[in-house]
Amino acid sequence: MLRLGFLGAGKMAHALANGFLAAGLTKADAIIASCDPSDNSSIESFQSLPKDVRVIRVMPNTPATVRCAASVFSCGSAVRSEDINLTKKLFGSIGTCEEVPETYMDPITALSGSGPAYVYAIMEALCTGGVRMGLPRELARRLVTQTVLGAAKTAVESNQHLSQLCDDVTSPAGSTAEALYWLEQSRLRAALIGAVEVATKRCKEVNLKR
User: Fold this and answer.
1) What is the Cα 209 distance to its own chain's centre?
2) Comparing 96 with 183, which gets the higher pLDDT?
3) Structural domains of the chain, with CATH
4) pTM score
5) What are phi and psi of 75, to 5 degrees?
6) Which label site among 33, 36, 74, 149 has the fewest CB atoms less than 10 Å from its CB?
């Protein structure tokens, strides 16, 4: 049974702990977490796990760099093969986990780490578009979230290029084709590509200051 420790007991650590427990990789009484002494919400959240995970209060500013669902890691020269296998086993239990060169970390942070915010912004805009066309906001929200979920699931399960998946749902001279033309005129793709670029540059700037 794995004994695990988390530097920080926030939402990310809580989600990871739940994933490891669900995968049967450890038990709650073998998990320990640390957090700011005043962070009562994190302590209560972590201790709500089965059998009460032990939480140690420590000083703030403890770093946490784990990405839930899509995880990557880089190895130093002293890393053993068993360390790599354990990392893949742990984070592979809650999503994807890949070993990458350290030089990939900044663009990965810009793409995957910041990516949910881009998707949420697009979802919110789509929801507002539905409301503008007469849909109740809660209905529009449900439709948008399910649409994004279905599209992501198809992309994960398919071996096709994303452009092909787009073509598959676009009829000639249809409403989707018209909408895609509008998005292209509005430079949506260029804006998203640019967002990843500026986020990568910002990551590099922040790292230089450390």
Assistant:
1) 25
2) 183
3) 4-100 (3.40.50.720), 113-209 (1.10.3730.10)
4) 0.73
5) -110, 140
6) 149
Rounded Cα distance, 46 and 32, in Å: 9
Over range 47-75, report the average pLDDT. Answer: 54
- DSSP-derived 3-state class of residue 34: strand
Angle 11-22/40-47 helices, nearest 10 degrees? 10
Cβ-Cβ contacts under 8 Å for 5 (sequence gap 6 or more): 31, 32, 33, 34
Q: In residues, how long is the chain?
A: 210
**Whole-number Å distance between alpha carbons of 38 and 114:** 27
Mean pLDDT, the chain, whole residue set? 84
Tell me the CB-side half-sphere exposure of residue 123, using CA atoms within 13 A: 19
Region of residue 57 (left: phi > 0; alpha: psi -120 to 50; beta: else): beta
d(CA 59, CA 208): 25
Does 3 or 173 have the greater pLDDT score? Answer: 173
